[in-house]
Structures are given as C-alpha cells and as structure tokens.
Design brief:
This protein is α/β, with parallel strands linked by helices and 890 residues long. It is 48% helix and 17% strand. α20 packs across α36. The radius of gyration is 33 Å and the shape is elongated. Bound molecules: adenosine-5'-diphosphate and magnesium ion (2 copies).
C-alpha cells in the first residue's frame, strides 16, 4: 500500500513539509494527549502528484477509505448514517501558514438522509438544515466551480419571499426549501445532481483543496510572502465537533500572550453556542476568556493548562482554535502565533527571562525588518483620514505638512517653521535642498529606486513615490487627483511611507520611542518594555557581530546621528552636494575655464569651502574612519537645463540683454550632453578629464584631517575613487592623492594616516580585482551601480516600467536593487573580494550600496567575509542587528 495518508496519531510537528503546518501540529497535539477530534492527513506528496499530473496517485482513494473506516470505528458513527452521521471537515494546511488563502469545507457527509440524523443528534433542525445549505453552497462554488451569485440570489429570494432581511430569520422549513433550490441550481449548472454519496463529497472536497493551492489569491500571497510555489498543501480530514449545541457549547480563538503588544498573559475571544467560523466572521460580539472562566470553569482551566503546555512545548507564543461541545473541550488548531514587531521583541526577551530560550535564540526570533518597523513614526490608526491616492511605499514613516511644488519654496517655508511635503512629478539632484527641508516627499512618477526614493531612504525622510493617479502641475503649484480634487500649495497633506497612502489634511502622528531611545532623547526606562527589549537584543547582536557597521553620511549632522545609532565610521561620504547651491556658479566657471591657469583659479576658490565641510565631518566622527568619495555624478547634473537655458539665451538675444556667459554655458551644456550619462563622463573619468579636480578634493580632505589632528583630534580619512574599471585609472589618481597627503603632513607637521581605495561598481573592476588591489588599500562595493551595470538595468527607469511585470511572471522574485542578487552580482562581489585579498592579504572590503541596510543582503555579506557594511544612518541599528543574527544563525 502507498503512504499518502497519515493518521493524526502517527505524525509530529517536525513533519511540516509532508503534513503541512496544520496537520503536523494537530498530530503533535494528539501525540501530547491533548484532546483533538480524530482524523488523518493527506500528504503534500499527494497534492504535488495531483498538481503535476492532473490525477491522484494510484491507490490514494483506497487508502483514504481505510482511514475513514478507522475513523468511523473510533467515533462509533458512520459517514452518511441517517441516525447518527459522522461529519468531517476537509481542511487545507500548507507548510507555511497562508491564512484564508485556500479552501476548507465543513460538514462533509451531509445529505438528504443524514441531515435528519444530525438534526436529531444536535436537537436543532434549523442548524442541521443551515449546515446542509452551507455545504451545498460551498461545494457548488469551490468543488464544482459554479457561479456563487446563483446561490446568493436564491438566498435573497428566500428572504424576500418571507419578508425578512437577515439569514437568522429563516427557520428550518425555509432552509429546507432553500436546500431544494440550491440542489436544483447544482443540477442545472453542473449537469449532475448534488452528490449524496459522502465518499464522493469527500473526494471532491479533497481535490478542491489541492487545487486551491493554485488559486489566484494563493499565488499572489505566496509571491508577496516569498513562499516557494511548488510546496503544495496537505489536506486534513477531521471529525466535526459542534460548538453550537446550546449554552454549554461554544468556540474560540486564543493566544498564549498578547499578539499586539507581547504582554504576558493569555488573550482570546469566545462565542457561546457557536461554530468556529462565527468567531472570526464577527457575527456577534465575542466574549473574553475571563467570561469563559465564569461560564465554564472546568473547560477554562483545562484550556489554560493546555495553552501553558503548548507554549512550553513550542517554546514560543502560540495561537489556538478551540471548540467546546457540551462541556467538552476540543483543540482544533495551534501554531506559533503571528505577532507585531513590538510583540516579537518583547516576547523574545520575556522568554529569555523565563528561562525558556537563550539570548542567542531570542536574537534569531526578531528581524531587522521588524526593528525597522519599530523605528518609523506612524499615523494614529484611530485618526480621521481622507485618502487621495496610493503610491509606492518608498521610504517609511508618517509625514504631515503643507504641499509645496518646488524646492526653493520648501526651504523657505520650512525655515519659517512650516513643515512641508515636497510634491514633484519626480525629483532630481537639484531638489536635494528641498528634500532636506521637507518632512516628506511625494512624487507621481518613479519606482522604489527612483532618485526621490533612494535619497529619501538615505536621509530617513518619508517618501511616497509613483502615485500615478496624481497629475502634478508644478508651474501652477497644484495637483489633481483621479476624481478631480485639486490640491494647491499650502494645503495640508499626510503621507504614509509604509503603506504608500496619501491623505488630505492632517492625520495625527506618533513618534517612535525606539528612535528616541537610539538618539538618546529617552532612556530605556522611559521607553517601556519594547524599548527595553530592543536594548537587550541590540547588545546581544553587538556581542556576536563580526562585521563592522558604518553609515553613509554626507554632512556633520548625519554623521553625528549615525554615531548615536552605533555607526563605527562613515563608509560613504558623497561630495557632490558640496558643489550645489551657491557653489554651482563655481562649477560652471570650472567647466568654462579656458586653460590651466583659469581652471586652477576656480579650484583654489573651491578648496577652502570643501575643507571646511570635511573639518566638521571629521570632528563628528573623531577617532573613527571616514571614507570620502571623490566627485562621482555626471557633470551635466551641475549645469542648467538645456531647454531652459536655450530659452533664456534666445530671449536675451531678442531683447539685446547681455548674455555672453549664458551663451558660453549653452555651448558647454551642448558639448557635455550625453546619451547615457550614467555610462559617460563621471567618477574617476572626471578626475582624469579635469586635471586638478580630484587633487583639489583630496587636498581639502587631507588638510581638513590635518587641521583636526592639529587641534588634538583624530581624523582617519579614507579617500575613495569611484567608477574605477582599470588599475591604471586608480594609479593615476592615487599619485595625486598621496602627493596631497605629503603636502598636508608637511604643512601642518602632524601625524596623518590616510588610506586610498576604490569602489568596485563595474563588472570589469570585480573581474580585475587582483590587479586593482595592488593600488588600493581598500575596496568598497557600490552595489547599486554594480547591479545596474551587471544587469544592464537603468535603475531610475526599470522599476517603474517593467519590474512589476517581471515579478508577476516570476522572472524576478524581488528587485535586485533591494536585495542582492546572489548568483550574478553576488558572484562578482565574491570574485572581487577573493581575488583582491589573494593579491593583497588583509585588504579591507566593505559595501556602501543600498544593500548595506537590507537584512537579507547583510547575511550574504557576512557569509562572504566582508569587513563592513555601510548604510544610511537610520538603517545602522538594523544592520547591526542583522550582522549579529547572521553570525548566531550561522
Ligand atoms: P483556516 O486555515 O482558514 O483557519 P480551518 O481549516 O482552520 O481554516 O477551518 C476554519 C474553521 O472551521 C476552524 O477555525 C474551525 O472553527 C472550523 N472547523 C474546522 N474543522 C472543524 C472540525 N473538525 N470541527 C469543528 N469545527 C471545525
Ligand atoms: Mg484555522
Ligand atoms: Mg556608484
């Protein structure tokens, strides 16, 4: 005989792959001697066989029949019996819980004859006919695939004929008539009568559950939760128990601890004289477990003893479903319970204190994603809201402010003390000052890796991007929603970066106590139990962590914040913003410079400005390494827009106004135009094409460091050259940097350590890492550009254009810009690291792309043996936690 069916008495919780979560846990409870209605499980093997071939494995139905016979013997009831029928539920249950995604069919076994037996046994004909009615309806819909509306219409007609509006107003006779109508619908629409044979019902229900694995909503859910598509579901066939047999019966759901807050103590809902579905459906107001204690003390005591036992056994918070049938308690389900992020931290630490699990295990029970959730401010869920649109959740948090449509206004209004939401079609590097000033950023175009999203995440600014139903008119200073609502500058918006929702008006915001604690503005004690739990687990993570965590920070303010969040240095200090704003004019002059002398004059003006930027940053990071990246973006980002400038020049020509500089600038803009700027004149190429530029930057960095050291500080500059593809490029720049260092040392006569390294962000750099390492003291993988150049994906475009299609088609499970692609980009990281270190033992290797703060990617970098990850300041605690978990979890 084959082995596709297992009695609850022979399985255990270890067998989730085969029995599914529900089946394995029912078996485990049975094994523990906890009262579970008897039954058996058809394995996931049987499901996979059916899904792959379209038919069940040979012998499956015989095996089922044998188990049904055993069940009948156990219960003393027979399927289809007209006097005392056995009824069973047919319940889905996959390895990973997919609540509500698949089918469960109750009351299998009811038919024209057994319905009377049930009525007599329960002593409630109305209930028996209602159960039968539900069975025919559910069977028709899910097993036979009939149109559910036909049943709904018949039900409505029955109510209308009687002049009532609620289902409960139909009595046993009405329901009997309705069953006749329903079975007629089945016969008419399916071409065959409703099966009276309980065996046929059972087989039909089993197949329907198998098929529900591939229902649209189940497929969608799995994709979102990243559950593999090929696991299949098990099917549990279980004797029905009835919670609706009067006041001594009832059903409930319960948790061994509060799943919302994690607070100790049981928590649950109970409904007297009701079947389980009624509890969840919220038909009547439920009672609490305390009420149950009052109503049925023995059942309550037994329930609590079982819950304590389950929690001890699973060594975690459990949720359960139970039914009491005439004073007798039955457990219908248990599993390790889902919980909020706050509860996850609190429960993990409480279990350590209770001696149930170790600190290390507790660390593995929480995730960086959960910590990140705890760090965002959030909207008060009870507050009033009026939804305008929903975009992409680009950078979490809750922001409220006046709508503004250009960055200068954002800066001005913010300076006057008005919080603002910067609304743009999309943002450009020119909007940086506006984004810094804004409480939140809203765009109508672009995906999660658009400029707005990346920059906002980096700054910890709330951002909703790609809210496509909004028509943004920046010139008029307004946007229009799909239903024609017009929102003008100054009107208040609330945006939720965790859900992508955009609300009109102010929704009240709650700050995150966890952030206040990290920032040092609230003590652990003030933060309450969740903050105390975060504090505990952060120190466990730090104790085990091998990788260092640095921050991406461009300003002294960000650096200081990152340090408070536990950053052990700066892994990426970008210098491009130091060329914007009032300094833009200098950049224009640099580009227009005629000859070396002219150019040098501009560089000489830039030098002291740059130097003072770095002094502040080195002071904020005193004693810790600061990696400064030399200028990286394409030059055109610093130049005026071609069209605007053309218009300006044309107008000036027409009116005879002076326009010599503008004309020259226009020529330069024209000359510097590139079809693919991200693959053009940028990074190290700028340093080579514009002599003196990188030398000036290096000099500014190193003189700043020397100045700080002179004052008794300890600056640790690490200069990083972007977009290197060949060692020759790095060598050329390295000479300039080393010379600048020597000059700085002589000028200030202080000791000054400096390192020179390179970003590895082109496949060629990774593939020639051995050669490049000869000229580098460190490598830093720029995984954003490396992903872009490895895949040939333009990151600003692809996420909004075709990524969703790729995800739907299963080509991509997750954006490679979000989580590192281990086979491709990850392989380059491995080659780069291994070959770099082979050529230069002890070469320091880090990561400074967006992936540095992504939990899954951090684990990958730990495996690859990287020395550090660098991420935005707000992500530093997340990266610390994940780096610790990666070590403990092995
Ligand atoms: P889901 O996975 O959607 O929770 P279940 O298989 O747990 O579906 O079934 C839903 C509900 O049906 C259960 O919560 C329980 O109330 C009821 N139910 C299932 N099997 C039985 C049974 N053997 N006896 C009584 N009620 C049952
Ligand atoms: Mg359930
Ligand atoms: Mg880059």
């Amino acid at each position: 005989m084959t082995d596709f069916v297992r009695d609850f008495e022979t399985g255990s919780m270890e067998e989730k792959d085969l029995l599914g979560g529900k089946g394995a846990n029912l078996a485990e409870m049975t094994r523990l001697g906890i009262p579970v209605p008897p039954g058996f499980t058809l394995t996931t093997d049987a499901c996979r066989h059916y899904l792959a071939t379209g038919s069940v494995p040979d012998g499956l139905w015989d095996e089922v029949a044998t188990h049904v016979a055993a069940l009948e013997a156990r219960t003393g009831r027979r399927l289809g019996d007209p006097v005392d029928p056995l009824l069973v539920s047919v319940r889905s249950g996959a390895k990973f819980s997919m609540p509500g995604m698949m089918e469960t069919v109750l009351d299998i076994g009811l038919g024209d004859r057994s319905v009377d037996g049930l009525a007599a046994q329960i002593g409630d004909p109305r209930f028996a006919w209602d159960s039968y009615r539900r069975l025919v309806q559910m069977y028709g819909k899910t097993v036979l695939g009939l149109d559910g509306e036909r049943f709904e219409d018949a039900l409505d007609a029955a109510k209308a004929a009687k002049g009532v509006t609620a289902d409960v107003d139909l009595d046993a006779d009405d329901l009997r008539a309705l069953v006749a109508t329903y079975t007629a619908v089945v016969a008419e629409d399916s071409g065959a009568p409703f099966p009276q044979d309980p065996g046929e019902q059972l087989r039909g229900a089993v197949l329907a559950v198998f098929r529900s694995w591939n229902s649209d909503r189940a497929v969608l859910y799995r994709r979102r939760e990243r559950i593999p598509a090929d696991l299949g579901t098990a099917v549990n066939v279980q004797a029905m128990v009835f919670g609706n047999r009067g006041a001594t019966s009832g059903s409930g759901v319960a948790f061994t601890r509060d799943p919302a807050t994690g607070a100790p103590g049981v928590y649950g809902d109970y409904l007297q004289d009701a079947q389980g579905e009624d509890v969840v459906a919220g038909i009547r107001n439920t009672l609490t477990l305390a009420d149950l204690e009052r109503l049925d003390r023995p059942s309550y005591d037994e329930l609590l003893a079982i819950m304590a036992r389950l929690e001890g056994h699973y060594r975690d918070m459990c949720d359960i479903e139970f039914t009491i049938e005439q004073g007798r308690l039955w457990m219908l389900q248990t599993r390790v319970g889902k919980r909020t992020a706050a509860a996850a931290f609190r429960i993990a630490v409480d279990l350590v204190d209770e001696g149930v699990i170790s600190e290390e295990e507790a660390l593995l029970r929480v995730t960086g994603g959960q910590l990140a959730q705890l760090m965002f401010p959030h909207f008060d869920p009870t507050g009033a809201r009026s939804l305008l649109a929903t975009g992409m959740s680009a950078s979490p948090g809750a922001a409220v402010g006046a709508a503004v449509f250009d960055s200068d206004t954002a800066v001005r209004m913010a300076a006057e003390g008005t919080p603002v939401i910067l609304v743009r079609r999309e943002t450009t590097p020119d909007d940086l000052h506006g984004m810094v000033a804004a409480a939140g950023i809203l765009t109508s175009r672009g995906g999660k890796t658009s400029h707005a999203a990346v920059v906002a995440r980096g700054m910890g600014r709330t951002c909703v991007c790609g809210a496509e139903t909004l028509e943004v008119d920046t010139r008029a200073g307004l946007f229009t929603t799909h239903d024609g609502t017009v929102v003008r500058q100054g009107e208040v918006l609330s945006i939720d970066g965790s859900t992508g929702e955009v609300f009109l008006g102010e929704v009240s915001v709650r700050p995150s106590p966890v952030v206040r604690y990290f920032e040092g503005s609230a003590s652990v004690d003030e933060g309450g139990p969740v903050v105390a739990a975060v504090d505990r687990l952060m120190s466990v993570a730090d104790k085990h962590r091998r990788m260092q965590v640095r921050a991406n920070a461009d300003t002294a303010e960000d650096a200081a914040r990152a340090r408070r969040f536990g950053a052990e240095g700066i892994g990426l200090c970008r210098t491009e913003h130091m060329f914007l704003g009032t300094r833009r004019e200098l950049v224009e002059r640099l580009i227009l410079a005629e000859g070396p002398a002219d150019r040098q004059a501009v560089l000489d003006e830039l030098l002291p400005l740059q130097r003072s930027d770095f002094v502040e940053i080195f002071e904020a990071m005193d004693g810790l390494p600061v990696t400064v990246r030399l200028l990286d973006p394409p030059l055109h980002e610093f130049l005026p827009d071609f069209t605007e400038l053309s218009v300006k020049v044309a107008v000036a020509e027409a009116t005879g106004a002076p326009h010599d500089t503008d004309s020259l600038l226009l020529l330069a803009v024209h000359r510097l135009h590139e079809e693919n700027p991200m693959l053009g004149l940028r990074g190290v190429r700028l340093g080579i094409a514009i002599p003196g530029l990188f030398e000036m930057q290096s000099q500014a960095v190193l003189e700043a460091a020397a100045l700080v050291n002179e004052r008794g500080g300890h600056a640790r500059p690490e200069i990083m050259v972007p977009l290197v593809g060949a060692v020759e490029e790095l060598r050329a720049i390295r000479t300039e940097i080393d010379d600048a260092a020597d000059r700085a040392r002589r000028k200030h006569s202080v000791p000054l350590e400096h390192l020179v390294g390179t970003m590895i962000e082109l496949p060629r750099a990774a593939l020639t890492a051995g050669a490049i390492a000869e000229a580098a003291d460190f490598f830093s993988f720029g995984t954003n550009d490396l992903t872009q150049t490895t895949w040939g994906f333009s990151r600003d475009d692809v996420e909004s254009s075709f990524f969703s299609r790729y995800m739907e088609a299963g080509i991509l499970g997750v954006s490679p810009f979000e989580t590192i692609d281990p086979q491709g980009v990850g392989r380059l990281v491995r080659i780069g690291t291994d070959e770099g270190r082979a050529a230069k033992p002890g070469l320091k290797v880090g990561v400074c792309g967006e992936h540095g703060g992504d939990p899954e990617s951090v684990r990958y970098f730990e495996e690859r043996g990287l020395d550090y990850v660098s991420c935005s300041p707000f992500r530093v605690p997340v990266a610390r936690l994940e780096a610790g978990r990666a070590v403990v979890g092995g």
